[in-house]
Amino acid sequence: AAGVAMVSSAQLPPEIQLAQRLAGNEQVTRDRAVRKLRKYIMARTQRTAGGFSHDELLKVWKGLFYCMWMQDKPLLQEELGRTISQLIHAFQTTEAQHLFLQAFWQTMNREWTGIDRLRLDKFYLLMRMVLSESFKAVKMHGWEERQIEKLLELLMTEILHPNSQAPHGVKSHFIEIFLEELSKVGAEELTADQNLKFIEPFCRIAAQTKDSLVLHSVTRGIFETIVEQAPFAIEDLMKELEAQSEEEEEAGSDGGEASEGGECTQALLSQKRSEEPPAGSIRRAEPEVGQEHGGDDGDGPVLQFDYEAVANKLFELASRQSTPSQNRKRLYKVIRKLQDLAGGIFPEDEMPEEACKRLLEGRRQRKAKRRLPKSRPRHRKVTGEKEDSSPDLNLGIDHALPREQPRGRGRRGAGKRKRQPQKPSGASTGEANIQEPEKKKKRRL
Where is the composition biased (Basic residues) (predicted)? Predict the structure, then answer.
């Protein structure tokens, strides 16, 4: 009987044998199986006629799912999640990587309802890590437009498409982590136009979905997050602009301060559009390890957006007659906030103008300090203006933190909510008959 069992197990396909070992009771067996799986993937996908079928990868992911299921200690869960998610880089072609990702999300959709409450966190972590490695795979191809489109098409089809089998828990977590993981991987390199490409599918979903929970999750997790992170995006650009101006001053090009006043915000908002900045120009430095940016959840810099372009894209979709009225009403609120940002008006207070003034004052102080003779005490000017300049940019940013107030709705003036979104100049015609219902006047009292 033992001989028959050995023969039968040897006759099983390799991916099924690996899946059984991945789900084994002993951790040593599971760890060894993960290492063997990586080598097996690399060897098989290097062959021209190699590769995996969809069914084979579903079997592999079932084993990986239960490998994670059996892992208990949090630190080991994190290490295992990283090892599993990095298997995507063992596949030698983009097509094989996408098949691997498709099998992962289908496995999560299928198994999600069976995950008990105590194990949810480890699978939330696994989803986050797999999404991050997906972005890194696109980054390795230089953020090619076709690579971005193919990844987004896969993610939308398996998670947010009306015909997908994804439970709401998977959908909401995916939406919640999307911008955060993208910013960790690509905020240093991605332009505003590329970032618009990444959120375009969410714009279409928000305009078309008949699921109110998906509408709420996308509006909150994508569009309102962009609005809330705007102070930090502007702060990043200010720091870059300041560093650039200091370099110019040191090089002797002291060309004055033409960006004073309201033009400062407009210049900052238009810094990162479609073109890549030249080498050595406006480009963020790598964030220090463990450095908190002060944003909602993320570390380091946040994604840059052309707020007017995002508002135009949303208006184009929301103003169509096929858009459900509840979707249109919800999106019009976001469009107004984005149009305000494009005009330099922040949702919480006048932070950009104040921050610009502080930035310019700081520059004047540094110039004055450099011009003082060494015999004069340098600290007088600084201490004399300390009450005005001590908050610097941080106080303005902290003051505008959206999560310290209920979703940024307490501080905006009533007058700003009355107007309907302005129709952008580039929006398509033939959709102007759509009016937003005027039910908001009661709320402003």
Answer: 364-381, 408-421
pLDDT tens for 210-246 read 999 999 999 999 999 999 988 888 777 777 777 777 7
Q: Give pLDDT tens digits for 69-80.
A: 998 888 889 999
> Encoding tokens for residue 134?
């997906």
Residue 259 CA to residue 265 CA, distance in Å, equals 9
* Measured distance CA(69)–CA(63) in Å, rounded: 10
pLDDT band at 426 (very low <50, low <70, confident <90, very high): low
Beta-carbon neighbour count of residue 187 at 10 Å? 21
Within 10 A of 317 (CB to CB), how many other CB atoms are there?
Answer: 22
pTM (whole model) above 0.85: no
Distance (Å, whole) CA 247 – CA 165: 54
| Alpha carbon distance 56, 54 (integer Å) | 5
Instruction: Report pLDDT digits (tens) over 322-379.
Output: 999 999 999 999 999 999 998 888 765 445 555 555 555 655 565 555 555 544 444 4
Six-digit token pair at 420? Answer: 């309907």
Cα–chain-centroid distance for residue 70?
30
Cβ atoms of 241 and 271 within 8 Å: the answer is yes
- Residue 292 pairs with which residues in a beta bridge? 299
The Cα 421–Cα 243 span in angstroms is: 36
CB 163 within 8 A of CB 211: no
Cross-strand pairs, 299:
292
Please report, to the nearest 10 degrees, the dihedral formed by the alpha carbons of residues 29, 34, 38, 39 taken in order.
-10
Burial of 366 (0-12, 13-18, 19+ CB in 10 A): middle
Closest by Cα among 241, 243, 236, 287 to 264: 241
